[in-house]
């Protein structure tokens, strides 16, 4: 369990066994219309403690520093938790002279979603909160709907934060959500990292995601909305009940129902163990961070090198494959490398990583495929690069004047010449893996590239084949950051046509290795200001 306060472990124990133990998890279902829930003053608020400005400020304090006039983006679905978070965050921003922008994502999965988003807009305007609605367009998956919707939601909100220049995204996960997450991960035996639950802070591509309500119960959140009587002229602030929250098809809903039905003694035991789980994850993530800092380097072409894992003199090397802290840290660390190099959202299973490392350590194989990558042993180190056969083979169109992500790993930006003479050809630009380019298969091409770019001489051919190539029609223009004139020299020496390059010399080509997730996010945010 996560708390956002800087407290000792003794105080953590008192916190969990004292303050939270006195509260009961409860859900009140008073429905107005189909999904709307209204709260009124009365006995229903007695078991919950409303959050006021001071208590919410204390929850936000561990995430400091903020700007002098902080600007926040808050995710609002219309449920009780997100409505309360938006109201509290608005007051916090006003007190600090900042600004708040609320965002709702319509996933297009329910007929009522658009009407609910409009209702949220009407409610938030009462508090002076600007509200934006984003839509997840395109085909929807037939399986893992909630997981895919969550990924799309975070991607859309992160992009909005980038466009608006906002660095902080607030989401309303709370204590009960955390309890459900920990229980599900324990059921799946997810290990030390997973069993500690959600982090109070994580890093997205353009902003940081903050969860200030992780120590706040659902009942306190609902009490906060009930206490809005007089603020808006109504008897409490209403909210929406999402019907998917009671659909037993989803694992989280089944887990929630079991937790609600659990005996009081079982819930108390869960709370007492939560601090221990968090402390174990802190220790593990510190070890992972040390492993990555000491043994891993990541190059701009998206290839990682892992040193020291086979050196018998190194104490950590002998522990790979074991269940101790150091061995597990190495396995988790290599998993993060595979996630970054492969452009994946999640690392492979820890057991799969341990198995791969054991095969390489015993020299039963020199190459092993895992997580869309190749682990390639060379003497006493491992190269990790994208697996060419796992990549999309079709051309990816590119427009001049806008950034284009490719394979969830690279970003290409093209700036047109001032005379605008390329407008007619712009629609024929695309990105493909270099391995699909005809000149790449000529030995003289690769030899000339190695003279131009020294790292090519030491890269496996399959690693080079996975690099992005910008092409016009079927003619190569630029490879992973190479300037056009350099590629022209290489193509000319290899006997390849170069006339087409004259049209594009004025284009400014910028490649960046930009994976979906950073190599390391900095650890589990259990305590303040790590």
TrEMBL record:
Its EC number is 6.3.4.19. It is found in: Cytoplasm. It comes from the Bacteria. Keywords: ATP-binding, Cytoplasm, Ligase, Nucleotide-binding, tRNA processing. ATP binds at residues 77-82. Transmembrane segments: none annotated. Its main location: cytoplasm. It catalyses: cytidine(34) in tRNA(Ile2) + L-lysine + ATP = lysidine(34) in tRNA(Ile2) + AMP + diphosphate + H(+). InterPro entries: Rossmann-like_a/b/a_fold, TilS/TtcA_N, tRNA_Ile_lys_synt, tRNA_Ile_lys_synt_N. Belongs to the tRNA(Ile)-lysidine synthase family. Ligates lysine onto the cytidine present at position 34 of the AUA codon-specific tRNA(Ile) that contains the anticodon CAU, in an ATP-dependent manner. Cytidine is converted to lysidine, thus changing the amino acid specificity of the tRNA from methionine to isoleucine. The N-terminal region contains the highly conserved SGGXDS motif, predicted to be a P-loop motif involved in ATP binding. This is tRNA(Ile)-lysidine synthase. It comes from Thalassospira marina. The gene is tilS.
